Amino acid sequence: MALTLPQNIALPGRLTARPSLLAAATVLLVCVPTGDKDVTAAVHVTAADLASLALVGTMALGLLRGRLPALNRTVCVLFGAVVCSAGVATVHSIDPMASVTGFVRLVQVFVLVPAAVLCSLRDRRDQQLVLGSLVLAALVQGVVGAKQFLTGTGASYTGQPIRAIGTFGALDIMAMSTVVCFGLLAALALALGERGPGGNRRLRIGCWAAAGFLVFPLAVSFSRGSWIACAAAAAVVLLRADARLALRGAVLAAALGLVLVGGLGLGGSGVTNRLSSIGAVSDTPDQSVTDRYDLWGTAGRIWQDHPVTGAGPKAFQQLRDSHAPLRLSSGSDAADSQIGFTREPLLSPHNMYFLVLSEQGLIGVLAYLALFLTLLVNCLLRVGDSATKGLSPVGGTARSPTVDGPRLAALGLLVWVLVDFLYADIGGTTTVLTSVILGLAARTALPGPNAGEAKQT
């Protein structure tokens, strides 16, 4: 028997008409400073988490009342597989009680919030709203990060307080570069989507300007992982939009880098040294790279002991010392003006795929890879479809875009996440943004038969 809710249970009218506002709020609230709180704690609830839970609740009520279209069957199967794999791993965990919090977090990040974002994106304008919030959040963090570098008030890097960290603090050192990357890729894709005779010239110029500015704070974040993921995602976006434009973009990026780093000297030595260290990771890697390799090996040894269902969510940190080599560091250094100097323990393998393998086994890896690859392949196939079908903007006139901006942005953001997962995993203030990206990608990859056609009552 179908479960329905009484029609006199009312939600705020604005949220009912445009629930993507909550998704956008989730993105923007990531910028709220958390002070010196430990973002790696087992239970750490941020303002963005609360907004995402409000979005989940709003979408759940909408589905129960029949005001939203049913989820695509494939989406349900993929999300259901992730829930089942996490549940099985929790039941067979070495410490089921400790794994419960990990199970809840996994379901929130990879199922509930992405599904809620997917349901909230009813039309093109909803997608633009969420993507616009990513750009705005990136600009806020970029301005703060650029100021930190220029005034020497950031986190410590090579003994100097010049590393751009935005409003997040040294305990969440990767957060600012993550937000900036998301905004840069969203702005780039939206700018490319506005090319053509029917494009919005002001929006195109604004997005190009935003993307160009965000290159600088990304550079002075000194985050090698973010650089690599952003370069890969930007290459996919440009190649999918226009191969010739991709070549011109590579030349322009190189020229811009020479001007900023070589000509103006902005972060020159730090950026150059950091770039050169990327090529040295297989020859003479620094301690952070060596530790990462050791953590990957540790995750592999844990998986060998628990091959099918894994050791259970949150089990890696319990089993790390018994499986890690003696040379593994006790933690990574962090320092800024607020927290002083501290060492953060290495509680994860810094690779999402190895984390899933060690904690959820082969069942978990298959479930996550099925989700990620399905989204990636379908995003690649659907980007550009709108151009051939003569898509029109909401409330606008017919246009002839070279590619659909929101779909292209979803593809680029998804590529960033999947590449970043090669040397990072979930954790920290910006984790909820990963959920938003997966929801955007799911809307592009698997829109369903009634996408954008919410039932009116």
Automatic annotation (TrEMBL):
Where are the coiled-coil regions? none
In the record, which residues are listed under signal peptide?
none
Q: How does it sit in the membrane?
A: Multi-pass membrane protein
Subcellular location(s) per record: Membrane
Keywords per UniProt: Ligase, Membrane, Transmembrane, Transmembrane helix
Q: Where are the transmembrane segments?
A: 41-63, 75-94, 100-121, 128-150, 170-191, 250-268, 361-381
Looking up InterPro entries in the UniProt record yields: O-antigen_ligase-rel_domated, WaaL-like
Q: Name one GO cellular component term.
A: membrane
Entry's Gene Ontology molecular function annotations: ligase activity
Q: Residues in domain O-antigen ligase-related?
A: 211-369
PANTHER family from the UniProt entry: LIPOPOLYSACCHARIDE BIOSYNTHESIS PROTEIN PA4999-RELATED (PTHR37422:SF13), TEICHURONIC ACID BIOSYNTHESIS PROTEIN TUAE (PTHR37422)
Q: Per its record, how is this protein called by name?
A: O-antigen ligase
User: Organism, per UniProt?
Assistant: Kitasatospora gansuensis
Q: What is the lineage of its organism?
A: Bacteria, Bacillati, Actinomycetota, Actinomycetes, Kitasatosporales
